Amino acid sequence: MQATVTRLKRGALGVLAALTLAASAQAAPRDEQAPGYYRQKVGNLTVTALYDGYVDIDSKLLKGMQAKDLHALLERLFVQDRNGVQTAVNAYLVQDGERVVLVDTGAAQCFGPTLGNILENIRRAGYTPDEIGTVLLTHLHPDHACGLLTADGKQAFPQATVWASKADADYWLSADQTARAGDGQKPMFEMAQRAVAPYAAQNRLRTYTNGSELLPGFTVVPTPGHTPGHSSYLFRSAGQSLLIWGDIIHSHAVQMPHPEVSIEFDSDQPQAIRTRRTVLASVSEQGWLIGGAHLPFPGLGHVRKEAQGYRWVPVEYGPIRADR
After folding, report:
1. Helices marked H in the chain
2. Which top CATH class is 37-314?
3. Cα dihedral sign for 196, 199, 202, 205?
4. What are the residue ranges spanned by the domains of the chain?
5. pTM attached to this predicted model
6. Contact 102/84 with Cβ under 8 angstroms?
């Protein structure tokens, strides 16, 4: 009898231990976020937003607003600024049934461990790098161009022709400009030059001038200021429009209500401000969908005119619908 009771107790303790372990396993923290891609229909186009990662930007880099007003604005919007403002880096893949086009490529290995996820997210989204036949660069800053290369320095998109504006290429790929650059800027030139070099060697780096239509339904919109040849890309299909605007906005919380605020990285800050004012006025009036490189992922939404500046209105998460 005693032996039977002992066996029952041991069995109960074993069951309890197993349940405890199972509960512990279920309660273990999960540190990975969902895959970084999001699809949106634009007419007959399928647009896939791709998340490269994030960088924490010091709010001191924003110019044109007193620090106390800047911090008060961020605080009201619950934007964490203690260790820098978390800022997304996004790219966009556009498929029209005949071709697959990638706009910007992310930072790859150029800027540390929180970035460099574009290739992985392209695959997670169901594509392969070999399918991409055209890469459009809004500009040649490393967080937009370095993703042209794999971690071992090879072409990430071996079938692609890479396009950039002539004004940006003439500046960032110039040996004379590189030599004149200060110590803080020179690495930016060198990273851009390394990123495009394998494509240039195979004559697959092309440049365009303002107003070019590189592909049917894909129009270049000159938006200079952030860099000399910074460009945006307007995609039109079945009466709908998407403007992928690169770096028109770095901080939606600040620069939407205050377009007069520039950022340290603007090569021509007065011109960048003029461009931002023009673009915001135009897209809010036209009602175009926007894709922004540094807007909160997926960076897709609309711009609404407000009494004070503008407001960012992000898309609502949902299924892929062609009727919206």
Report:
1. 2-27, 67-76, 118-124, 142-145, 166-172, 175-180, 186-201, 252-255, 269-286
2. alpha beta
3. negative
4. 1-31, 37-314
5. 0.90
6. no
